[in-house]
């Protein structure tokens, strides 16, 4: 059987594989290259299934390589046996002929295979290309067919969508839209206009969604209607729900609307919108008018029902909390009439709604739960938190209603069940809020306290309250002071006697002249007598001084008294609460006085700066508050009082009304709040110190302000030089007179505000600032004439009038508060003394207030340079006598 000719068809796979597996044909010199059996095998292989393009090309490459290998093998054999081959080739004609025939045949075969026009190889490649083109055309035809089928299906969907929508078959229409979504995800369009076609289809789908969305929205708007009663929000609201929405030719069930919304993923948007309307039309107005409104359900027929939120009717049940009863009615209505759940009022246990209803309820609950909780707390529960402990038991009814409402919301599945019993009172639940009533009570009490405190602090009226301390204490202090003075007087008398004895040495008269036997003893008796007389006179003055002793009285503002009363009321409330709540209320009192320290110096800064009496009264307030807080600390750190009498003694002039410890209904209160706080944590020492520091700071500010005023007066004198001139004397005279008048008037102002001790302290600081300046101005003079000395003495002496502002004896004498008073008094004496008198006082240790350099400068300014002055200066330079 001859070989099958190679035409423009696909070569068989088996034939190609045999060539690739290197199955060589045995060359038979007697049988025209290939034996018959091998030819038959090859023909059989050619009859097998066609090979692919890659296999054919690989086969051609194999043929080329075999031809090349054959040529190479022949040449190698000829080269290796060149001599023998050449001899045989020349001598044997048969061999030469056979070799020539072999090469000729080989060339012919090679030409048949590789000829570019008629060769097998070129024909085979051409056949492969034609085969590829045929396959590509077939594939393109299949793709076009598939695309046409796809577009036909899309067109059918669009047509059906229009029909379903026209027939109000909204569930089927929604299914079509969902199917279109799926079709666009697997689009088989592969043409060069694929993007254009796909965009057109997407636009069509978007248009279909819009049409469906609008239709569903219109249906839902007709099915669920929110409206005002009489068009006025203040009159109430009505929610009307229709379970069937009828059209010209069809009717749509409310549940179908929600199913369709779910199909096209629009249910979340509509439930969110429903939540906003429920809050706007129902819940917010209900909370705003919670005292007079309630929610009621009215079923008109099988299709239509109404939820009315408005004024209560006469038959309204007040046995339950009105607000939570209304909220329960609202959510029952939404659950049953809108979301398609069973009527909750007909079942006491689980409701077992459909899966879709469960899905809707869960989503709606997620949307509304947090806002509902925050609104109920803000607009209702926070206002119902009691301010007094006596109201805590009544709040339990509201707390129980809140817990029952929350349990019902969980049963309806608007809220999720708690995961474990320990977490039942979750942080974000109404139950958790009402469970922490003690915390909210203390927070509200604190806010109320700070609100009242701020109102007191910012009041522009400074009404004064007189605080009078025990006069007997003042008498005792005065007696002790006078006794101390008497003791000092006796000691000074003894020292003076010793000094006289020492100074007699070297005098110009004899010891025994006119000096009898008992003269010394008589003189001693006389000295003792003088001291005794002095003491008797001093003691006699005690009673007269006590009789005119100024009472220890001062003024505070009514603000301070009000703050202490608030503090005591709060602490009395705290002792009725549990430990944590009691400590919170105690901390609220600390916040109150922190607020006081922050507001008072800032809010009333201008008044305190411009009005000395108010500044000093603020000082009194701070000191009095500090004192009262320490009294409160002491009282509340002691065992708990059993009656109001144990606490009424705190503070001065505090009414007993606000101090009582109310034990009524304490057992019921303890059931709500737990174990009571005993008050042992009360600690006000730090706050008292801070208040004292604040008061002292403003006292110092006012003193410095008044010092600045006095300094401005003194600056007008421009020193004390040239006092012999009349115009200079007049200026200084006017200034000193103005200073005396200013301090006298200030004393009158402070007398009504400060206690005597503090008033004398304040005056002493001011007088001393003037005295110190006058001393410095005198000491600055380097040359003082006799006339100027007299004028200076007159000017300086005018300030002695200020001594009348202080008592003559006792702890508040002027020299007890004016540090430089004695020095100033001696300075005025020096201006009139002779040098001898000055030296006498120096030797008698009466000028110890002066530094030796000060005395030297004064003597140099007052007296001419003489040998006597030089000797005295020499003596002074050696220092004060011991």
From TrEMBL:
Pfam families: ZW10_C, ZW10_C2, Zw10_middle. It comes from the Eukaryota. Residues 478-508 are annotated as: Disordered. Keywords: Signal. GO terms for cellular component: cytoplasm; RZZ complex. Residues 555-646 form the Centromere/kinetochore protein zw10 C-terminal domain. Residues 478-503 have a biased composition (Basic and acidic residues). Residues 251-457 form the Centromere/kinetochore protein zw10 middle domain. Residues 735-876 form the ZW10 C-terminal helical domain. GO terms for biological process: endoplasmic reticulum to Golgi vesicle-mediated transport; mitotic spindle assembly checkpoint signaling. This is 5261_t:CDS:1. It comes from Ambispora gerdemannii.
